[in-house]
Structures are given as structure tokens and as C-alpha cells.
Amino acid sequence: METKQDNKIPSPIDQQVPSEVPAIELKGITKRFGSVVANNAIDLTLNKGEILSLLGENGSGKTTLMNMLSGIYYPDEGEIFVNGSKVEIRSPKDAFDLRIGMIHQHFKLVDVFTAAENIVLGLPGERGKLDKNAVAKAVREIADRYGFEIDPNQKVYDMSVSQKQTVEIVKVLYRGADILILDEPTAVLTPQETDKLFAVMKNMKKDGKAIIIITHKLHEVLAVSDRVAVLRKGQYIGDVPTSQASQQSLTDMMVGHAVSLNIDRPMADSLKERLRVEHLTVKNKEGVKKLSDVSFTAYGGEILGIAGIAGSGQKELLESIAGIQHVEEGGNITYIDPQGKGIHLEGMDPLDIIRKGILLSFVPEDRFGMGLVGGMNITQNVMLRSYRKGAGPMLDQQTPRKLADKIVNDLEVVTPDINRTPLRRLSGGNVQKVLVGREIEQSPTVLMTAYAVRGLDINTSYTIYNLLTQQKMQGVAVIYVGEDLDVLLELCDRILVLCGGQVSGIVDGRSITKEQVGLMMTKVGGGE
Amino acid sequence: MNGFVSFLTSLPSLFQSGVIFGTVILFGALGEILTEKSGNLNLGVPGIMYLGGIAGLASTFYYENLLCHRLNIAPNPVLCIIICLAATFLAAACGGLIYSFLTISLRTNQNVTGLTLTIFGSGIGNFFGGSLNTLAGGVGQVNVKVTSELFRAFSTDLVKTVDGWTAKLGFGLGTMLFSYGFLTYFAILLAIFLWWFFKKTRYGLSLRAVGENTATADAAGINVTKYKYLATCIGAGVSGFGGTYYVMNYIKGTWENQGTIEALGWLAVALVIFATWKPLRAIWGSYLFGMLYWAFFYIGGLTRSSQELFKMLPYVVTIFVLLFVALRKRKEDQPPMSLGLPYFREER
């Protein structure tokens, strides 16, 4: 990964004169999910024989926009032109008919089928006959033409991630696609596999195909594309020829200029060491490192922000502290209790942590998956934290009910009935208030939150910011994983920046600029 | 010792009983395999077999006993069979259609819907079965003698010839293999056809994709709803033949309400698991189940209560198959991955 790159890489392509009609033209595309606007009046063009990078932070609406081209979603407003004529793309089949093929981030393959079976899936063929030899031959031809390595008779469940991706691309080409959309294709690849993919993409470009690649890795953008289009928070920011772009200029476009949010950020009187993480390494099921040698200390009386592009290891970091992730040998997580005694958390599961009386609270990213039970009411959800307490087989209903009342009053949770309405019926903001309220009521020493304001409106977000600041002033060590840099910069005392599972720096939240954090997230200017 | 010898000598007879019940189970299981390949877990198989059975019986009763009797003509053999099979298939497919509409279009819980259908089907079957008995008058037992005999007809020449060849063995191979009605052999052909359809055609590939990974199939341009509806309705129609086979071949064109069809229907659901969703494995599996069902009858010295223990055998075998498959972890032996899951496209 440590390739030294100049900020400006001149693109080797000839300047093409766009005399032809563009392969794709989007005009004023808008898509909403409930009250959230995922794409707002987006205009975008893609020319034939061009590789366009679609750049943007997570949640900026890149995938949503592309899903409208592949027929997964249908736009609420706006027009789509393919090869100059206006089209309606209502289903994936419509997209195929227009020769648009999308390679999704999560592969759409049938595990128990062979590569060849996946490739011909859904095609009519000759009188419904399935001639596996003929398909295998055609697949090999495509592979030879563009430089893929593929075994048509291999079952998908036996394949590596890179091989599965190859099947996806060949599948799209086999269907005669001229316009290819790749959604973060390199996120799962090793650097060598990425180089191979880029070589293949350039071969396809020479063949006249138009390609959109969604990514947030800047060096890849500069290495492979002809032009870059940038999205930010659902808005189209602009495009620039890659030859005139640098990592710095692209970062500026991607993160935008700092917006003042006026979040109150008082200084605590004293800082106390509460959590010490040393040389933490975490591998996922496939044995890929998700966190590598992460070390930091969290202090009571400060909010430690964690910034990074989605999937840089934030989830693994919090989960290994909470005892859900397996930590590799050599890593230490030390919790320092109010008496100043250190307790090692590595190797403990959540029940051990509770039994040891460790005051650790965790507001997970996945509210209903890990934090709350949607079918139960507020009192019952509060009870999840306390039902083990007390003697005898009967549940103590009174204490949780009082606590639930307190949370509802203090945080102004809007609910028809505390003891009746299941949580799933409440709005996202109210659900989050219940979760954060419950965790705060445990009077934690360390409070970890993951994307605590995701999907919430402005007012609720500020309620949550104020709650976290209150906790900080009471001497709690708050860890805040966030995605909005503006918020991180105004809320947090220190910011730890993650990039690809490594710490690219821990900086002072009051003096750092948005651009600097943005660059560290993409590994430039980071390192210490 | 004596008991064991008599058990051995009764094996050919056990095999014959096994084939009759096995065929009922095989039809049920083949339909259910087709259904489950589309990702729909239809636990309404017993009910659907009731629907098929009563429709087959009622339609032939109207043709043979009422219409032909009134016109004073002899029933046309071809018409007898066509009317019976068509009515069976249509009624059973209607059961599948109810299930499809509820689970695919309205996205209700598949288990609950299937179980409800089972109760509904057995209720309908026994209600109209009782009505037919009343309509039949006389001894109060409906009987479609002509049609039933057509269903059970076989070539005595062939059986005798083969029996002659194997006379030295002490039992008649011809009787064992060729003394059944035509639907018995149709079931085997149907299993082979389904195997061919799943493995060798693009439609089969698409259907399997729908059941394995619905979102992938959808993204590949396959009409998921259409495949699910067709597979479930046709599957139900096929299962329905099981009911008619029982009515025509085993109880000889009459109706009984002892719940045997339901018992065999659950065995059909178990057989789908036993056969690991493979039609060819279901053929011998069904005969094995049929024989296990009747084993208690051929083992001497059983009391009424210990008989019941032996009736558990098919289910016990199914549990062992589940254990074996779980331990072996072969991807090809697993149920379709999307089995039982509703599908929404615009889910975020």
C-alpha cells in the first residue's frame, strides 16, 4: 500500500473530442427514501470509451444513483438518456436490454452454481436448452479477450473474492453490456488483484466500453480513470478530468468546506485515563486484517472522535472493546476503573464484562440488530440491561419502568405508550434516544457510540451531541465514531483517524482542519 | 427365529405395500420439491393432497355414477381418467394458488399459511367426502368402481411371464415390479423429468436461482414472481395426484376419513428433506418410506402400542438424514438458501 505517488499524475489518454452522443446522460435525478433525500437533482454524463470515477464519502449517494441505472431503484424525479434517447429503467432486465451492467459491491451470485451457470442465469438461450460446453467456450473467449482468469466449471462457493468478482464482470460482458458500473470493486481486493482488474478495465475501454467505477480511494481514481465526478451528501459537486486533478483537489471536492454547526464544546477540568488500547489487531473470518496494530488511550473528560471512511475498522474497534470480536494475540485492552485499577478486557465476552462490574456502555451502529428488540416496548428494552439483577426467578418490573419514565421525560421521547408501544413503531430519532438514554443511565465510565446520529434530524442530533458532552463533563470517557467530518471537528476533543484498519494519526480536534482530516482518511499526510 | 423367517418370506408383500404408499408419498414429495426449489416452503402438502383426492373422486363420481347412469351409457374409460386427473390437478393447483397469493403477493408467513392450508384441505376433503357418501345412497359409501379399476389395471400377461422366469427364486418378480396401476410408473417418469428439468434446462436453472438467491435471480432479469407462482401452483397440482392415487389405488375409489392422507402428506414433506431436494433420490426414498410405514404389520408379536413405535421409523430416518447432512456439510445437499424467506425488491 505504501506506494509513493505524486499528487498529479498526467493521464496518458488523448483528449477525446466528445463528438458522439454520450453513453449515459442523467438529468435532474432525485431519489428519496422516506424523508431522506439520497440523490438531489443530479446531472451526470458518461462518454463512450471512457472510465469515469464516481467519488464521494459513504452515504453521499453514489450507490443509490447507480442502482437507478441498473434498475434496482426507480428515480422519483429526473430523466435518463442512453445513447441519446430517453429511457425508462424499471427493472434489472430493462437495464440489460439497454446494455447496462452493474457489478454490485455485494456479489449477486448463486453459491451452489458454477461460474458458467451464474453467467447464463436468466438468459433465454435456444429453446430453453442449457448447453454447458457452449457457454464455457464463450466464457473462455471473453476471458481471453480482456485478460481474465476464470474456470467456467468452478463452483462459486469454492472461489476467492477476486474470482467471484471476475465471474460478475464476465457475466455482464457475456450479456453484451457496453456500459459497465463497478461499485467499489477494489474494496475487497489485494493490491495485486486490483492491478489486474485495472488492466482488464483498460482493455475494455480500448474496446469502446464506457465504465463507471465507484470508489473512495484517491490513488485508484488517479491511476485508472479519465474523468472524476464527485458527489457529496446527495448533491452533485462537479467533475474534473483526471489529468487536471490531484489528491488534494479531489479531497477538497469530496469533503467540502467546513460548515459551522455551533456545537458547544467545553473543556473538562481534568482528564483521567480510562481505557488503554495497545497493539490491537483483529482479523475477520476470512483471516483478513481489519485492524492492525491500533494503539490509543481514551480519557475521562474528553470525547475521542474516530474518523475514517466506512469499513476502515471502526466497527471492529468498538466491538473488540465490547467483547464481541476476537482479538489477535499480543493486543491489550485495559480498562481503568474509578479506583484506578486496570482490568484486561481482551478475551472477555459481554457477560464477563458485566459480571466484573465494568462500567462500559456501547451504542452500536445496528440499533435493532444489536442494541434493541423492535417488538418489545421501552420498559422491556430497558430491562434487557437489568433483568439479571435481583434474587429469585421473578422479574423486577418496577425499577426498569421508572427508568423508562425517566428516559422518556429527560430526552423527550415521543411514544404513544411507554408500556405498550413496541419500539419498532417509533421514529428513528426516538429509538436512538431510548438506546443512548438506556446506556447513559448505566452511569458508564466509558461510553462508546457508533454513528449515533445516523438517520436522525437536526434537532435530535443536537440532543445527542449535548448528552454526550454532558457525559464528558461528568468525567466519562466518550468514544464517538462518526461519518460527518463537520460534526467530528466541532464535537470532539481529539480525533483518531483510521485508514484501512491502521491509525493514520491522532489529532487535536480544535486545531485540525477538515481538509487535513480528509487527507489522513485517504492516507496522505498521515502516518504519525 | 421362526418370526424372522416369516418376516423374510413376507418381504415381497411388504415391498408391494411399500410401493403403493410410496407412490402416494412420491407424488406429494415431487410437487413439494418443485415448490421448494422456488424458495416457497409449503407445509400445506397434506391439505393439498386432500383437495386433489376429493376432486378426483367427486368428478369421477359425477361422471360415472350420476351422468352416465342417467344417460344410461357405459362410462368411457379415457374420459374417466382424463376427468379424474384434470379435476385433481386443478383443485390441488387452486390450493397452491391460495398459498402463492398469500405468501408471494401478500407476503404472509409461509409456515403459518402452509399449516392453515393443511387444516383447510383436510376439512374440505372430509366434508365433501361425507357428502358424497350421502349422495351415493345405498350402503352410504361412495364407490367409483369403473374408474378405480382403470387406475389399478395392469398387464397380467407381463406379470405372469416375469413371474415364470423368476419362479425359482421363490417369489414373483413380475408381481413385485409390474402389478401396479399406470400412475405408479408415471410418478417415476415425473421424477426423472423433474431431474432433467432442474439440471438440463435454462428454466430449471432460473427456478433454482430463485430459490437459492432471490435477489440475484431478480438482478439477472428473471421474473421472480412468475417463477414462484408457477412452481408453487404446478407443484401443488403434482402433490394432488398423491391424494387421488390413494383414493383410486389403495381404497379403490371410496372415501375414508381416518386421516391416512394427512399422515402420508407429512411423510412427503419429510421425504423432501430425506431426498435432499433431489427428485431421483425421492424415488427409492419414497418406497423405503412406504416399507417403513408398513414394517409394523410384518413384524410378528407386536402389541397395539408397540406398533406405534415402529410407525415412527420414517421420521426417525429423516432425523438421521438431517444429522448426516449437517455433519457432512456438502453445499449441494443443503435446502435452497432462500427457502421460507419473503422477497421485497426495494428493501434498504
Task: Describe the fold and architecture.
The complex is a heterodimer of chains A (528) and B (348). Chain A has helices spanning 62-69, 92-97, 115-120, 132-146, 161-174, 191-206, 218-224, 247-255, 314-321, 350-355, 367-371, 378-383, 398-410, 428-440, 458-473, 485-491, 514-521, and strands at 24-33, 36-46, 51-55, 77-82, 85-87, 100-103, 179-183, 210-215, 227-232, 235-241, 272-283, 289-300, 303-307, 332-336, 342-344, 360-363, 446-450, 477-481, 494-499, 502-508. With 528 residues, chain A is of the alpha/beta class. A 6-stranded mixed beta sheet of chain A has the order 6-7-8-3-9-10, sandwiched between helices. A 6-stranded mixed beta sheet of chain A has the order 16-17-18-13-19-20, sandwiched between helices. In chain A, strand 4 and strand 5 form a beta hairpin. The longest helix of chain A has 16 residues, at 191-206. Chain A is globular, with a radius of gyration of 25 Å. Chain B is an all-alpha fold. Chain B has helices spanning 2-9, 11-37, 45-71, 77-105, 110-136, 145-152, 156-165, 173-178, 182-200, 202-212, 214-219, 224-250, 260-274, 279-298, 304-311, 313-328. In chain B, helix 4 (77-105) crosses helix 12 (224-250) and helix 6 (145-152) crosses helix 12 (224-250). At the A-B interface, helix 2 of A face helix 10 and helix 11 of B.
